[in-house]
Amino acid sequence: MTDNEYRKMYDIDPYKAQTALFYEYFNYVYAIIYNKLRSCGNREDIEECVEDVFSSVFISYDRDRNFNGDMKGFIAVIANRTAIQMYRKLSRHKDTVYIENEAAEIADTDCIMEKTERNVLKNTLLKLIKSLGEPDSDIIIQKYYYNMNSSEIAKKHSMSPSSVRMRCSRALKKLKELLAAEGYGLKEGNI
Q1: Cα-Cα-Cα-Cα dihedral of 62, 64, 67, 71, to 10°?
Q2: Beta-strand runs (E) in 32-176
Q3: For the residues of 101-138, what is the DSSP string, one character each?
């Protein structure tokens, strides 16, 4: 929609002109806002910003100025500026937790301890698997982390499937001993 088209439509029926402008540029404005706010805002924030853009367009549009070009640039400038303002506002308050917010819950200390222990175990396990050396560490990771079978692993390492199974069995025994030395017990299927 050009400026002249909008101006003529506005002179006849302002509401109809604003509605037409909204429907023509809604997707364009939404894309601009979404790209700026997707990392810090939710859907409601994005929709609110889109509404702010169109209200700013309608308020700041200068009907006395003669411009015969496309309104896309004018709308894009307002959309970018409004999105940047909203981004700054949301980023400033991103880490703030409000007590009155019913959705915010205080974390359970038992859950935190359990997650921490699990992460320590995972890091220890990966460190010990890497200490097994090549190709044993690769075989263990491919078998238990990537769920590859012996034939697939054998092709990658130019070995026979039976050799892969034998190396895997020996590496697991060695890994159990290393974990026991660290104070952990390894159960089958818990890698």
Answers
A1: 30
A2: none
A3: -TT--PPPHHHHHHHHHHHHHHHHHHHHHHHT-TTHHH
Answer for the pair 161, 150: CB distance below 8 angstroms, yes or no: yes
Token representation of residue 145: 């982390």
Contact in structure between 75 and 55 (CB atoms under 8 Å): no
**SS3 of residue 189 by DSSP:** coil
Determine phi and psi for 70, rounding to 5 degrees.
-75, 145
| Report field, pTM of the whole predicted structure over 0.85 | no
pLDDT band at 139 (very low <50, low <70, confident <90, very high): confident
Q: Which CATH number fits domain 109-182: 1.20.1250.20, 1.10.10.10, 3.40.50.11740, 1.20.58.220?
A: 1.10.10.10
10 Å Cβ neighbour count for 17? Answer: 20
Q: Which fold has domain 3-92?
A: Rna Polymerase Sigma Factor; Chain: A (1.10.1740)
DSSP run (H or E) holding 96: none
E strands along the chain, which residues? none
pLDDT value, residue 185: 65
Match 């029926």 to its residue by tokens.
13
